[in-house]
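Action item from last meeting closed. Structure (439 res):
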């Protein structure tokens, strides 16, 4: 049995070796146009063992929420089902699922033995009357049932769209509570859908701009713990942190990891001037990449680590620029009316997300890496801080409402501007940063 997760899931193996993987006609092509969501059915997974029925029901509902939450899939209500799945291995009655226009059928089972949980699932192409790939099995503890649900949904999403999923991922963000003029901020981490919130710092010091490492085990952020903005790195598993930039009289902020996870790019302000630097994560060599009498900040690496996009007001207004990873001549890529900031390179490498302020409104938008094909996805009193899902198809950001009682909340939207959805958190939230898929 292949070991895929050391702490949560014990194994992943094929459970239907008699059925060969096949590529059926069922395929959802994701384009930037408006599409009709693909109807699917996911009857409650069958259950065995003490507590199995409750876990099976909860797990099935999370799978459905993941898929339907993309806006690409539409669940056929359980009340409309003609067939009932009571045996995971029983033959599928395709005619019953065709009759309710379910194009995909997901079946599964949850077996509980003590505190151990084994989950199996299969995906069927209803109209071709065949299984879509082989069934899979996940095993671990009952406490990990939610992650297993996300992994099932990721596998289903990948089989039907041909692209990687993003459900088994986490988001680190700044949790905000209290009145607007006395806002308390602390780092928090949660599942991508807002579940399982845990706090990583207390609210004794202002924290800003957390960013995951490429492996998802560390977080960079800016803290005012010393009374002065400094870049910290936090080990997520141990919840241990340390300062990595503490030069006297120098403010450091807006950090991000390089794709190699060993280098950090960030901004320093000294004497009223901000420039961009890189530094070894272990406090080694430090290199200045920009040197201009303007504000240079919000750097973000390209996925191949060869370029950096950043914001600068060197042209008189806040615009986006791209420069080689070692510094040197920077090329301006934003030319629309308004101010551009907080650029983030897509993990696919094809787009850059940004915040734009124009005519008194804030927008989250995307453009090609050469600045072409700018597209605004949102508009509100204040939208800011975009972050990419691991597959580069969804953007999460913070939206603050207007007025003295205004709150900052998290939202997500896909790159076509469709499917704008709130991400529920216990308090307010800002500065989200999406992790890679968990291992």
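Sequence:
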């Amino acid at each position: 049995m292949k070991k895929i997760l050391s702490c949560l899931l014990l194994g992943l193996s094929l459970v239907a070796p008699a059925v060969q993987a096949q590529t059926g006609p069922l395929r959802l092509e994701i384009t930037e146009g408006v599409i009709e969501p693909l109807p699917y059915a996911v009857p409650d997974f069958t259950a065995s063992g003490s507590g199995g029925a409750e876990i099976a029901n909860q797990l099935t509902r999370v799978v459905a929420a993941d898929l339907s939450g993309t806006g690409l899939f539409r669940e056929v209500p359980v009340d409309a089902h003609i067939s009932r799945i009571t045996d995971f291995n029983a033959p599928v009655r395709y005619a019953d699922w065709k009759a309710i226009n379910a194009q995909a059928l997901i079946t599964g089972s949850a077996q509980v033995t003590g505190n151990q949980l084994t989950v199996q699932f299969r995906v069927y192409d209803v109209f071709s009357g065949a299984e879509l790939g082989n069934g899979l099995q996940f095993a671990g503890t009952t406490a990990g049932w939610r992650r297993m649900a996300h992994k099932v949904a990721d596998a289903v999403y990948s089989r039907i769209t041909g692209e990687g999923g993003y459900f088994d991922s986490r988001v680190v963000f700044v949790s905000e509570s209290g009145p607007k003029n006395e806002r308390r901020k602390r780092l928090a981490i949660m599942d991508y859908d807002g579940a399982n919130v845990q706090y990583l710092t207390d609210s004794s010091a202002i924290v800003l701009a957390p960013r995951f490492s490429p492996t998802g085990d560390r977080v960079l952020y800016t803290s005012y713990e010393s009374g002065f903005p400094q870049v910290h790195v936090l080990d997520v598993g141990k919840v241990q942190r340390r300062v990595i930039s503490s030069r006297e009289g120098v403010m450091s902020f807006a950090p991000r990891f390089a794709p190699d996870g060993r280098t950090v790019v960030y901004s320093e302000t000294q004497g009223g001037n901000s420039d961009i630097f890189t530094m070894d994560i272990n406090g080694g060599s430090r290199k200045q990449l920009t040197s201009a009498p303007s504000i240079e900040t919000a750097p973000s690496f390209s996925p191949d680590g060869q370029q950096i996009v950043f914001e600068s007001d060197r042209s008189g207004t806040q615009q986006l620029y791209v420069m080689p990873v070692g510094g040197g001549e920077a090329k301006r890529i934003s030319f629309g009316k308004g101010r551009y900031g907080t650029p983030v390179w897509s993990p696919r490498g094809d787009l850059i997300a940004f915040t734009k302020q124009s005519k008194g409104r804030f927008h989250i938008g995307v453009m090609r890496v050469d600045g072409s094909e700018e597209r605004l996805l949102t508009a509100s009193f204040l939208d800011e801080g975009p972050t990419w899902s691991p597959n580069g198809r969804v953007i999460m950001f913070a939206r603050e409402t207007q007025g003295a009682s205004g709150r900052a909340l998290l939202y997500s939207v896909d790159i076509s501007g469709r499917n704008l959805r709130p991400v529920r958190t216990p308090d307010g939230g800002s500065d989200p940063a999406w992790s890679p898929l968990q291992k």
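Note appended to the action item: DSSP finds three helices and 32 strands in the chain.
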